[in-house]
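User: Structure please.
Assistant: Input sequence and predicted structure:
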Amino acid sequence: MILTCPECATRYLTKDGSIGPNGRTVRCTKCETTWFVASDMDELALKDNQVETITAASVAAIPSVDTDKVSTKDRGISKPELGAHVDIRDRADNLRRKRRLRTVALIWLIPLLILCFAVGLAYKFRQDIVSQWPMTATLYKQLGVKVSISGLEIEDPITRNTLIENKTVLVVNGAVRNISTKAQDVPLIKFSLHSESGQELTSWFVDTDVESLEKKGRVTFVSEYPNPPLDAVALRYRFEDSSGVLSEEGGETPQTFKR
């Protein structure tokens, strides 16, 4: 007779007559599950199915099969490969899981690449964008990106005091650079001296003697201002357009003037 464990499906071969006429309770040597085996399987199948509740005490009292213990090792029967379908199912589940992860990764990666590409273009052509849409200059400046609505930039001037004919003269060396990709007209530059409190003490205009700058062009200038105020500590500079309105683009020298 071949017995099959109802829990782990391990199969055993028993000798004829080992079950006995009244049936017998056997224990699986692999998972320790016990179950009752009737002597006549066909007759048992015709009877009503009756399930007897097995308590822990009764299970402990059931003797395990000793000399007639059902074991594939003792009976010389090779144990069949169990769980092959479970392994195939797990592999299929892992494959589906990996495919889902790749799909989700692509869903996020493609928009991210598009966003990075757009940001790169917005940075590379920032001056052209600002020239076309001046309102975007505020956004760039909030992000810490240096842009110019006019397409021109005044490099930080270098200041020094010198004596010319026994007079103190403030000398300003600077340059204007075209940071756009097209030619730009060069307006006048307004310089002003300010006190420590920020009050404007005096101002003057400087002409670079260049009407326009080609793309990426640069022009230098030198300006002299005689007898600068003694309490001037900062130099500020701005462009002035053709209408006489000062541009918001400019700056201030970080150092105080040495006497």
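Residues 141 and 147 are 7 Å apart (CA to CA).
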